[in-house]
């Protein structure tokens, strides 16, 4: 198969599928907080999807029965804490009254009693001394015996001791007993105050806990924060994530979005870009958006964001990293709704009136690129070409070809029928320098690479066979041994379309083997593979 070289308009688009979404979604989520073992709450009732709502309209009712039971038990705990608080308050008041009672009452009373006792002892001592003096005069005259005089002397000594004892009691009361008693009463007041603060804190905690349950019961009735059309926030699960479908009986966790209220006046497309092309896309690039639901409708868009980090990869799916990007839709039509599948063509590059050939017609040879030119029915000429930018179908040729010439669509199949220039040793197989130069089959000159191996050739390396088997396992959905364009596009394997050497739109096993054997660096060069995107019409090229 040969292609006629022509001049046309080159367009390089990065094409990916995405999903339409609102740029200004109002997410309605569950704000019911978990408690102990209560982490999920079932949906009892949910408003019909698609219905228009106003602020305050009820959207979802969650099962609050478990919270209501907890609230009942909490009310009992709160009653106990209220009783404890009242008891602590009374004990503090009693301790404060005891302090006042002692300082202003009992202490004064004891002090006055001791002062009276001192007065009485002083009077008793005075009388005993007067009586002893009188007895001493009588004893001198012989009217009182010495024994009586001695008794009167003892009465004086006794009165002195009683007076000293009374004064000592008063001193101990004022200087020691009073301070000790006050310290005891102050300690009792301090303990009562601490008990009261603890009771207040306990009562506050119990009240807050009851308020918490009452608030969560209230949060089980979810209302609309803004006006809009109800869209369920369903999540389709995979082997690593569970499925979430908004319907009665579904469990909802805290902060999980249940309903979205999109703003239809600002719509965008959420796109996942293959890692092989994400470096080409920048914010500000224009894009053309088509929708599967509206045939013929084309929308203009602009790339507003490209994430710096890839999205998480499922360990059970294809290990292809993709980067999320946002493309805003300019002038959103009224019929556009969230969830629609969109095809986004991001305009990376374009050139007018340039020479182009299909990417499969260019063959890497050493460090250069060659095309096989048909001079006549039997005359094929290899020609070195200088290449410009490429897309998934065409590559711009800066020099080496002229319009109207015919180039082969399978240049490697013609290697045996042409004379290629001899390659330097370092360009023959640079990836196998450490293991020595890989020799071609007998009869070939050492300066030329080996031709493609046939599908049944037995000396295919084990690593290459494993790679082909892995590709077929990942992308061959119907297990027919052939990769169609739809199968590759559905699973992110568009880059393998370059292995389609005969141009029939399907990649056979032998084509994969040939591409793997002869082009070990496929992913490193835009010409070695068609870039990872769906085919599209390019300018005027045929």
Task: Explain how this protein is built.
Mean pLDDT is 83; it is low at 431-464 and 517-542. It is built from six helices and 23 strands. By secondary structure, the chain is α+β, with helices and mostly antiparallel strands.
Mind sketching the topology for me?
Layout: E1 2-4, E2 6-22, E3 26-29, E4 40-46, E5 52-53, E6 58-62, H1 65-141, H2 146-219, E7 221-223, E8 228-229, E9 231-232, E10 251-253, E11 257-261, E12 267-274, E13 286-291, E14 294-306, E15 322-329, E16 341-358, E17 363-365, E18 368-374, E19 380-390, E20 394-399, E21 406-408, H3 425-428, H4 462-475, E22 483-484, H5 485-490, E23 506-507, H6 509-518
Antiparallel strand pairs: 1-21, 2-12, 2-16, 3-11, 4-6, 4-10, 5-8, 6-7, 9-11, 12-15, 13-14, 13-16, 14-15, 16-20, 17-18, 18-19, 19-20, 22-23
Choose one word for the global shape: rod-shaped
Strand content: 25-35%
Spatial strand order of the main sheet:
2-12-15-14-13-16
Number of helices: 6
- Uncertain segments of ≥5 residues (pLDDT<50)? 431-464, 517-542
Q: Note the run of SSEs as H and E.
A: EEEEEEHHEEEEEEEEEEEEEEEHHEHEH
Task: Provide a compact summary of the structure.
The chain has 542 residues and is an alpha+beta fold.
Which labels suit this protein?
542 residues, alpha+beta, six-stranded antiparallel β-barrel, four-stranded antiparallel sheet, 6 helices, 26% strand, rod-shaped, disordered C terminus
């Amino acid at each position: 198969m040969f292609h006629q070289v022509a001049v046309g308009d080159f367009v390089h688009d990065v094409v990916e599928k995405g999903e339409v979404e609102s740029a200004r979604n109002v997410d309605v989520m569950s704000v019911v907080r978990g408690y102990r073992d209560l982490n999920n709450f079932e949906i009892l009732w949910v408003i019909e999807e698609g219905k228009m709502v106003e602020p305050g309209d009820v959207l979802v009712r969650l099962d609050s029965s478990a919270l209501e039971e907890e609230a009942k038990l909490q009310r009992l705990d709160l009653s106990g804490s209220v009783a404890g608080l009242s008891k602590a308050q009374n004990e503090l008041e009693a301790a404060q009254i005891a302090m006042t009672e002692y300082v202003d009452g009992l202490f004064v009373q004891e002090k006055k009693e001791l002062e009276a006792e001192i007065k009485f002892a002083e009077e008793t001592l005075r009388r005993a001394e007067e009586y002893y003096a009188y007895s001493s005069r009588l004893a001198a005259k012989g009217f009182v015996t010495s024994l009586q005089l001695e008794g009167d002397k003892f009465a004086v000594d006794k009165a002195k001791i009683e007076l000293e004892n009374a004064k000592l009691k008063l001193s101990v009361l004022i200087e020691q007993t009073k301070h000790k008693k006050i310290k005891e009463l102050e300690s009792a007041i301090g303990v009562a105050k601490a008990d009261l603060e603890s009771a207040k804190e306990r009562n506050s905690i119990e009240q807050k806990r009851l308020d918490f349950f009452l608030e969560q019961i209230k949060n089980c009735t979810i209302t609309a924060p803004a006006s809009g059309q109800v869209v369920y926030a369903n999540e389709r699960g995979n082997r690593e994530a569970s499925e979430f479908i908004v319907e009665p009986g579904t469990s909802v966790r805290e902060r999980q979005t249940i309903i979205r209220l999109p703003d239809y006046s600002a719509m965008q497309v959420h796109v996942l870009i293959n890692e092989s092309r994400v470096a080409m896309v920048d914010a500000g690039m224009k894009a053309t958006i088509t929708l599967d639901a509206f045939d013929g409708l084309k929308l203009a868009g602009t790339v507003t964001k490209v994430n710096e980090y890839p999205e998480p990869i499922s360990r059970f799916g294809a290990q292809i990293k993709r980067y999320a990007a946002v493309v805003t839709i300019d002038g959103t039509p009224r019929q556009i709704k969230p969830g629609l599948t969109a095809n986004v063509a991001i305009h990376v590059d374009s050139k007018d009136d340039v020479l182009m050939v299909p990417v499969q017609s260019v063959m890497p040879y050493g460090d250069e690129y060659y095309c096989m030119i048909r001079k006549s029915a039997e005359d094929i000429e290899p020609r070195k070409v200088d290449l410009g930018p490429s897309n998934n179908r065409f590559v711009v040729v800066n020099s080496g070809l002229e319009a109207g010439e015919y180039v082969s669509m399978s240049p490697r199949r013609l290697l045996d029928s042409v004379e290629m220039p001899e390659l330097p040793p370092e360009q023959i197989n640079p990836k196998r320098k450490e293991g020595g130069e890989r020799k071609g089959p007998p009869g070939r000159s050492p300066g030329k690479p080996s031709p493609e191996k046939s599908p049944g050739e037995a000396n295919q390396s084990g690593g290459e066979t494993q790679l082909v088997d892995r590709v077929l396992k990942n992308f061959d959905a119907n297990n027919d041994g052939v990769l169609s364009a739809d199968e590759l596009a559905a699973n992110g394997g568009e880059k393998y379309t370059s292995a389609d050497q005969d141009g029939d739109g399907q990649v056979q096993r032998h084509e994969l083997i040939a591409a793997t054997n002869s082009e070990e660096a496929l992913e490193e060069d835009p010409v070695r593979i068609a870039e990872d995107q769906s085919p599209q019409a390019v300018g005027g090229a045929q």
